[in-house]
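Record type: monomer structure entry
Structure origin: computed from sequence
Chain ID: A
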Amino acid sequence: MLFYTLIKPVLQVALRVFFRKIEVRHRERLALPGPLLFAGNHPNTLMDPLLVGINSRQPVAFLAKSTFFQNPVSRTVLASGNSIPIYRRQDTGTGPATPEEFAIQNEATFGRCYDYLGEGGTIMIFPEGTSVSERRLRPLKTGAARIALGAEARHQFRLGLKVVPIAINYFDPSRFRSDVLLNVAAPIVVADYAAQYAADPEAAAMQLTDAIREALERHLVITRDAADDVFVQQIEQTFGDHLNPDDDPNTLYDNFQFSQTLLQALAWFEQNAPSRLVALRQQLQTYLRDLRTHRLTDEALEGQRRGTIAGLLNLALGLPVWLYGLLNNYLPYILPSAVARRATKEVEFVAPIMLTVGMFTFPLAYALQAAAVHHWLTHDWRLTALYVLSLPLTGFYALSYWQTLTARLARLRALRLFQRTPAVGAALLQQRATLAAQLEEARDAYLARPEQD
């Protein structure tokens, strides 16, 4: 518990640096009086429990698969960080050798959970049982429900245990400075299943699992397959501002609702106007392919004449600050992504590796740079402290400056296209306008659909 208390503020800082925005909807549900059982989807391995842990006031015990406890170092860290191993049949060679031993080991795990919940504690479990980076919810195992019902049964269903489903929605799970929405569902009172449990414990576990699944589905962006996911994200990134003009820039929940609406509309058009949907898909792919041919983005094409003298002046004046931030932050910034790319091909492991490596590279680089500057230049701890303070500030500025510069260079490429081959530029704009109009018509048709649909 001491390790958990010490590491939590460090992880809070690290995660708030890694993500541009972490939004928790219905945060008060994470602070309900215990005992609580948090049940979440699992798209991003270690990032998922970390995000829940830093946003929960009370200590959280995490159920982790037994393979994480193989290594002595990770076993020590996990155990001191309040984690409990759970043994799965597919994890061969990491735990019990026989079915009998397997059952005994997991009964011991369940017993630890019952004790922890009985003391008013909070446990986090991922009922999917595995982590896959996709906007889908895999079938839920009944372990979470069986733990919840078993803990309540031990106290004659007077414990007051609640299951809180937590839907974790990443907007770009493997990218630094992306966004994440923790969409917390209403708590499920486990005592409400007392009668079903008395009649048939297995049926009660299935019913509670179904309730968890339904709550997560309502609070997640869920796509049916990779093709639908790509299509919807292309619409969001290219025409999101046109189709969702009332988007509130201060919340991620609007983006979540927009994604859900797009997916519902996609399913509706497949049933009611499939030929129209096929035509839209083809036109969008053609437009995006033509943009790639000319090394353009939709934003650059649409805003190719946008830009002010003030914007150019800001870029010119900011150049020295960008160079300073780049030189001082490039190595600790680039190393985590380089290590992650070499360490894994699985998307769901990229972000945790980047976060872990970055927690070492940045402090180490800053410490070495500070020591060098103090020894050879300043000889004054106050000047050295100012230098250290400048490192993260100019690092964030360098990242923002590069994004602004990249967008401006893309607009300049679009402007050059219009100057050299105006007919091509005009054709692209017409293509864009036609597609935008058809998407708006499709949106209006979906919103005006009969109630029975």
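Annotation 1: The mean pLDDT is 90.
Annotation 2: Residues 309-420 form one domain.
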